[in-house]
Amino acid sequence: MVLRTAVRAGRHRLDSVLLAEKRVAGLADLIAGLAEDVPVYSAPQAVLDGIVGFHIHRGVLALGRRAPEPAIEPLLQAMGPRALVLVLSGIGNHDNMGGLFRNAAAFGVDAVLLDPTCCDPLYRKAIRVSVGAALTVPFARLDPGVDPVALLERHGFAALALSPRGATPLTALSRPDRAAVLLGTEGPGLPPALLARTTTVSIPMAGAFDSLNVAVTSGIVLHRLVFS
Question: What global pTM score does this model have?
Fold first, then answer.
């Protein structure tokens, strides 16, 4: 599925494909859709396992060349009057990063902005968890020292920062035309100085429980903003 997504999106150029011999016939249509200069290799399962260091049961590997990331200012400026972006701070877990991109694709997020401390969305595990969404959703990384709130304000985005102590319950939030959802790492969350300059949003929960996995949080918030 990830390889089909990569081919269909065409954002990142494929250099080569390696398939287990048992997968070649079933992927004939995908192979036929590759550019003529992309070599396709096949090998017994044991050879693939030796290359990656563990049993790769899917039997599908590809080597891609990372496309240049877009510049943030033109990226935001080019978005329409109604736009939605995800701004991530300190996301270091590749499973969470993949889940965030999967949700971003599912709810039509226009772009994902990453602070300098976030892990790489194009790390293989993040790509796999995202089911290929990391290969399709535009993303760019903020330079060190860039003020994300000021950046968003320059382009007319309302900054909505998620926090268990957020002043506005998600159920009471009205969707701004240009909305930016800010999410921080689990535990520390977003810096207090940043929260003080944004609209802080909380997700009502039962009992004394006050937090959710960051990827789960993104799914709930994005659904609310898109369909409310």
Answer: 0.93
The closest alpha carbon to 159, from 186, 191, 136, belongs to 191
Contact status, residue 180 vs residue 160, Cβ threshold 8 Å: yes
Helix (H) and strand (E) counts in the chain: 9, 10
- Residue 207: what pLDDT? 79
Q: Judge: domain 2-65, CATH 3.30.450.20.
A: no
Closest among 158, 159, 171 to 224, alpha carbons compared: 171
The vertex-187 CA angle with 105 and 128, nearest 5°, equals 30
Fold of 72-227: Alpha/beta knot (3.40.1280)
CB 152 within 8 A of CB 160: no
Q: Mean pLDDT per 10-residue run, the chain (228 residues)?
A: 92 94 94 94 92 85 93 96 97 97 98 97 96 96 96 98 95 96 91 96 87 95 95
